């Protein structure tokens, strides 16, 4: 009987102690419906324990989407985009506003609010030699090409932005450039 | 062009001799730490603004390393290369074509605007190199003691000590009562004395009904507190802070470097999930940042990481991306980083990030807490249903620019007698909105 009491005390103490551990998740009560049987988009393991990391078949176009960008990441590709590629979006207030919002998230860290290459990371010497837009001979096509493939130290931002957002950013960068050239 | 070329050839001899002399002088002077400050500064600024996006002094980057480039190339050649390397290549210069091919035909930007003086200043900087300063000795014991998050344990400590003090007071009181009642005071040895005291205390409690009731009430309250506390924390992971495979500091990235949350968590604006960024997003910056700045320190609760250890953490990113930091190319041997998920709603709840981030414009910090101050990520909010509903009840919905529903919104506002409807009044409390 004494042992029994001791065990109860120990169990209580142990359960109290385990509550304070922040490195492990809390106990769950009947977690039957916590994890669904169908595959979860952001789950660690995919179908039958195999991670789902397969690319769509080449040439796949999402419903309502756009054909994949097929200008190659070469010098010739850059020149081709610079000369031929045109912005499919009209210049509207809405497009420019979203272009500005996206530019603020994805570009200002390096290129700066005005596009003069004087962003926070440039000021703190993390990234050096970021060009001013006015010093570079860029067109809408070349801006889009660089957003897709990156150039020199700039990486590709195609995975973070949608088709429309990229062209909206292009519009906004052109506005910034004309402002800088004034 | 021809006359310029002739002129170049004539001046080249001059330049050659001058550079040789200068180089000679520089090597001597740099040894003596005697540097032309003004030129050095000018060169450094120009290098930083014009060259550093592709070149480093001590390492290959996009282009070759530039430290001591003057000892490898002639000054006049460098000048014509920097001004217009395409023209130099077109003129059939063997060196120029060779370097172009070595770097897989990546074109260097032309800098026709740089003057002779500018280029000489830059070359002066590359020849001298970085002037290493003697590192300052950091003062010891800069307060790491004020680690936050210890408040609950303090409260518990105070409570426990209060209980112990109360017990001691009761014990001494009882003892005095016993003595006053006429029982003789015994003092034979300390240990037996203590034992007797305890026995007396127990006997006293047994006799005193009021104390017994008090004791029972206290015990009931305590156990109820413990029981409810335990039950209410079942499945609630507030404060959960698992050990991650890479010591990633949100404080450095989102706080110090002011990178927007959505730069990395880019799917939050369009998708149900905010997403853990894939390694290509890390590589957008870390392609060139292989080392942390000299004084960077990450202070965790149990350890402090300094530059040497933090550089190893960046190397883990390279291993995951299959990036060879020496050759500066992808090897194709990638390994996923197995981040440990912290915020995880049960699957019987529907939650959509885009609805909150893009439509409602809720700041990330509202639910995730001061992430930009967290060296190590933890769950800030309880993520319980009550917590969701509290916010839905308080949040007034911004209905601007939503003309299609304007009439319905007007009627709703009239129905509830308010100026602005809350998320709850728009149906944010309906069970089926989140549970289906």
Annotate the secondary structure layout:
The complex is a heterodimer of chains A (182) and B (436).
Chain A: H1 2-19, H2 75-84, H3 93-106, H4 108-111, H5 120-123, H6 140-149, H7 163-181
Chain B: H1 2-31, H2 37-51, H3 75-83, H4 85-90, H5 94-102, H6 116-128, H7 151-180, H8 190-207, H9 209-232, H10 250-256, H11 261-264, H12 279-286, E1 298-299, E2 304-305, H13 307-321, E3 323-324, E4 329-330, H14 353-359, H15 364-368, H16 385-394, H17 406-416, H18 424-428, H19 431-434
Antiparallel strand pairs in B: 1-2, 3-4
Helix pairs in contact in B: 2-6, 7-8, 12-13
User: Unreliable segments of chain A (pLDDT under 50, ≥5 consecutive)?
Assistant: none
Number of helices of chain B: 19
Distance between the termini of chain B: 77 Å
Roughly how many Å is the radius of gyration of chain B?
36 Å
The parts of chain B where pLDDT drops under 50 for at least 5 residues are: 1-11, 25-32, 134-151
Order of helices and strands of chain B: HHHHHHHHHHHHEEHEEHHHHHH
What's the tally of helices of chain A?
A: 7
Q: Helix/strand-derived class of chain A?
A: mainly alpha
The 3D shape of chain B can be described as elongated
Largest sheet of chain B: 2 strands, antiparallel
Taken as a percent bin, the fraction of beta residues of chain A is under 5%
Q: Helix fraction of chain A?
A: 40-55%
Order of helices and strands of chain A: HHHHHHH
Q: What is the number of beta strands of chain A?
A: 0
- The counted number of beta strands of chain B is 4
* Coarse structural class of chain B: mainly alpha
What is the overall shape of chain A?
A: elongated
Oligomer: heterodimer
Share of β-strand residues of chain B: under 5%
Mean pLDDT over the residues of chain B = 80
């Amino acid at each position: 009987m004494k042992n029994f009491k001791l065990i109860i005390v120990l169990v209580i103490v142990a359960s109290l102690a385990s509550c304070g551990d922040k490195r492990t998740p809390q106990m769950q009560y009947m977690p039957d419906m916590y994890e669904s049987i169908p595959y979860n988009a952001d789950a660690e393991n995919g179908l039958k324990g195999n991670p789902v990391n397969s690319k769509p078949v080449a040439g796949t176009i999402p419903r309502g989407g756009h054909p994949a960008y097929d200008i190659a990441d070469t010098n010739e590709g850059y020149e081709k985009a610079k000369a031929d590629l045109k912005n499919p979006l009209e210049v509207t207030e809405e497009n420019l506003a979203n272009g500005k919002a996206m530019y603020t998230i994805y570009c200002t860290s390096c290129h700066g609010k005005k596009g003069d290459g004087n962003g926070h990371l440039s000021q703190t010497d993390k990234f050096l030699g970021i060009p001013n837009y006015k010093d570079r001979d860029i067109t809408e096509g070349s801006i889009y090409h660089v957003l897709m493939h990156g150039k020199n130290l700039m990486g590709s931002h195609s995975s973070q932005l949608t088709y429309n957002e990229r062209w909206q950013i292009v519009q906004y960068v052109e506005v910034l450039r004309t402002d800088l050239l004034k | 062009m021809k006359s310029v070329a002739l002129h170049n050839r004539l001046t080249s001899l001059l330049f050659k001799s001058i550079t040789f002399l200068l180089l000679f002088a520089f090597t001597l002077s740099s040894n003596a730490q005697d540097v032309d400050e003004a030129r050095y500064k000018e060169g450094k600024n120009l290098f930083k603004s014009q060259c550093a996006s592709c070149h480093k002094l001590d390492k290959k980057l996009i282009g070759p390393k530039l430290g001591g480039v003057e000892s490898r190339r002639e000054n006049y050649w460098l000048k014509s290369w920097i001004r217009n390397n395409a023209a130099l290549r077109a003129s059939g210069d063997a060196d120029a074509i060779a370097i172009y091919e070595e770097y897989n035909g990546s074109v260097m930007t032309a800098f026709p605007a740089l003057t002779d003086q500018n280029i000489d200043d830059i070359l002066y900087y590359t020849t001298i190199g970085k002037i290493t300063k003697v590192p300052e000795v950091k003062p010891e014991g800069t307060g790491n003691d004020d680690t936050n998050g210890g408040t609950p344990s303090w409260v518990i400590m105070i409570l426990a000590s209060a209980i112990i003090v109360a017990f001691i007071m009761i014990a001494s009181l009882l003892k005095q009562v016993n003595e006053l009642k006429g029982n003789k005071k015994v003092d034979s040895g300390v240990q037996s004395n203590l034992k007797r005291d305890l026995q007396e205390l127990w006997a006293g409690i047994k006799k005193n009904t009021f104390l017994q009731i008090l004791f029972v009430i206290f015990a009931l309250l305590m156990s109820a507190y413990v029981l409810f506390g335990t039950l209410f924390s079942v499945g609630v992971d507030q404060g959960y802070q698992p050990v991650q495979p890479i010591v990633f500091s949100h404080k450095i990235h989102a706080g110090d470097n002011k990178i927007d949350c959505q730069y990395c968590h880019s799917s939050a604006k369009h998708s149900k999930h905010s997403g853990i960024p894939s390694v290509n997003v890390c590589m957008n910056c870390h392609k060139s940042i292989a080392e942390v700045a000299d004084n960077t320190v990450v202070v965790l609760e149990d350890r402090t990481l300094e530059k040497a250890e933090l550089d190893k953490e960046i190397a883990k990113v390279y291993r995951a991306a299959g990036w060879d930091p020496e050759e500066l190319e992808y090897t194709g041997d990638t390994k996923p980083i197995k981040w440990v998920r912290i915020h995880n709603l049960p699957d019987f709840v529907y939650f959509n990030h885009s609805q909150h981030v893009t439509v409602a414009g809720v700041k990330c910090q509202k639910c995730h807490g001061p992430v930009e101050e967290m060296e190590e990520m933890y769950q800030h909010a309880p993520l319980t249903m009550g917590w969701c509903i509290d916010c839905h009840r308080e949040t007034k919905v911004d209905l601007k620019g939503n003309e299609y529903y304007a009439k319905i919104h007007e009627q709703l506002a009239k129905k509830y007698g308010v100026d602005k409807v809350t998320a709850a009044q728009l149906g944010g409390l309906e069970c089926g909105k989140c549970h289906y």
